[in-house]
């Protein structure tokens, strides 16, 4: 791989405060220790065997997220206020601790426009409508279709809606909290989708703690593949384990994504313009969408998502 190719692959993975005094900067790299055992401890000690699969899924997701949050916070050496640190833990889903905790002047942070506020609100409402519709239809025979509708509504409600509103609110207060989603449908390639547009929280985490340390040791190509392998294993743990089936399919999905990125940035891929233009968009659409059932396989939809919708319908 040429130096130019290495730079291209490297670019893939990149990327209400009280007037209290800043806390001293501390190197917190011991946060690594909590990342691996936390989810297992939560499942083994707190989750009874009879716990519904969807509740187990949420327990795992929250446990892993808290482990990642702890890791980024412990590693950050930025001086910040106590209230900003609390806000990072409780009021912001992102994982770029340094950006959020830095006490920038409000004038240096671009405030959201009225149009952005409206867009975030519309996505939140639309997601709530779709999710609510899925709950109402949860007992219909078409379980897969209803489950997919519920997942679409939940992702739109949370990741595209509420989290975007939170970003707008923080930026209006001068805090560097960029939206987690950056118009994924506008992705020009697979690498553009994963590197710049989809879920910047997880991207920031894998780039900081996997890609950068590994790239110098095993090269950027293998570092990218390791990053996607990690993503696949995490999703397998949260998706397949509670569902009791479909093991390996989420990991295969993410390995396919990494392979497509390596192909895009290879000499052959560049000759075929697979990283830009209509070819890049076409490859992205095929690689991202065609195997989506590998990621959210029918075991997960039928054993986790639909029972969750049914439980919410009973509550409602």
Automatic annotation (TrEMBL):
Residues 179-251 form the Wax synthase domain. GO terms for biological process: lipid metabolic process. This is Wax synthase domain-containing protein. InterPro entries: Wax_synthase, Wax_synthase_dom. It holds the Pfam family MBOAT_2. Keywords: Membrane, Transferase, Transmembrane, Transmembrane helix. One of its GO terms (molecular function) is O-acyltransferase activity. The chain crosses the membrane at residues 32-51, 57-74, 109-131, 143-165, 214-234, 246-263, 283-300. One of its GO terms (cellular component) is membrane. The keyword Transferase applies. Pathway: Secondary metabolite biosynthesis. It comes from Blastopirellula marina. It is a multi-pass membrane protein. It is found in: Membrane. Its main location: membrane.
